[in-house]
């Protein structure tokens, strides 16, 4: 079993997502699940770089990312952004998650 920060706590996470979805519904009057799907599509990366070559001469090459990896990376980056924005902050994490999803949905940045 994993120990440390953010290991487990599934009920707490479900409650955070429920609060966030209710806030998204109040702010946009749209289906929150559709907003989340569009946000993940908008913030997913298209290309990645890969190192090719031997020990001495390395060359970076641009490669396409598989659809599954695109979705996983997008969700991971959104989760890390929410965690960083809510850490040592007075804002609740559900508000931070709502902002992150809405900014990704609108293709705008938070800064």
UniProtKB/TrEMBL annotation:
The name this protein goes by in its record: Small ribosomal subunit protein uS7 domain-containing protein
Superkingdom, taxonomy of origin: Eukaryota
Pfam family, one: Ribosomal_S7
GO biological process, one term: translation
One cellular component term from this protein's GO annotations in UniProt: ribonucleoprotein complex
Source organism per UniProt: Lotharella oceanica
Boundaries of every Small ribosomal subunit protein uS7 domain copy: 7-110
Keywords recorded for this protein, A-Z: Ribonucleoprotein, Ribosomal protein
């Amino acid at each position: 079993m994993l120990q440390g920060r953010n290991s487990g706590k599934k009920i707490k996470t479900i409650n955070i997502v429920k609060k966030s979805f209710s806030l998204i519904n109040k702010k946009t009057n749209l289906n929150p699940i559709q907003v989340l799907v569009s946000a993940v599509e908008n913030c997913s990366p298209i290309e990645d770089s890969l190192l090719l070559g031997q020990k001495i001469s390395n060359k970076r090459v641009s490669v396409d990312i598989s659809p599954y990896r695109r979705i996983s990376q997008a969700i991971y980056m959104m989760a890390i952004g929410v965690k960083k924005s809510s850490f040592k902050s007075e804002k609740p994490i559900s508000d931070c998650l709502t902002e992150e999803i809405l900014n990704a949905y609108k293709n705008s940045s938070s800064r």
